[in-house]
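Batch manifest, entry 17 of 40.
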Amino acid sequence: MTETTPYDADRARFTRQALARLALCDHAAAVADGAAGLVATGNDPDTGPGGRVSQAFQLIELAERALVSAVTYERERGSSWAEIGQYLGIGPAEAEARFAADLGGWATAFDVPYRLDVTGRKRVPQLPTAAYDPVSACGRLDTWARNRLVLVDDKHPVGSGLVMATPET
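Output type: C-alpha cells
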C-alpha cells in the first residue's frame, strides 16, 4: 500500500535523522511522564494491589521503545554498530542483529507508509507518530520541554536542534 499520507509535504521538510530524533524525543517524554506517575504518593490508596509494579513494568516497555528510537537515530546520524554496541556492552554484530528488524521496519515505512489493520479496512501508519506528523510533534514536544525542563531557555527546545532537509530550489 504505497498511497500518500496527509503529512507527506510536512515530513519532506525534515531529514530522516530529524524524524528519528523526533521519535526518540516522543518516546523519552513518555518514559519521563511514566516515571513521574510513580513519584507522588497521595494516590497510593487508590491503586490496587500490584498497581505500582504494573506502572514500573510499563516503564521498562517505554524505555525499550526509547532505546529502539535511540538506535534508529544514531544509525540515521551515522553512528557505527561498534559505537552503538559499545554503549550497550555488546559487540557490533550482536547490536546489528538485535535491532535489524526495527531498522528494517523504519526504512520500509518510508516506502510503504501504511499497513492494513486485522480487519483489512483501516490504514495504520507505519512510522512512529512523531515521525509521521512531525510538525504537530514539534509543537507538542516543544511545549512539553518548556513546561518540564527548568534550565532550558529556548522557545523551541526540540524543534530548534533538528537537522532539516535542504529546500529544493
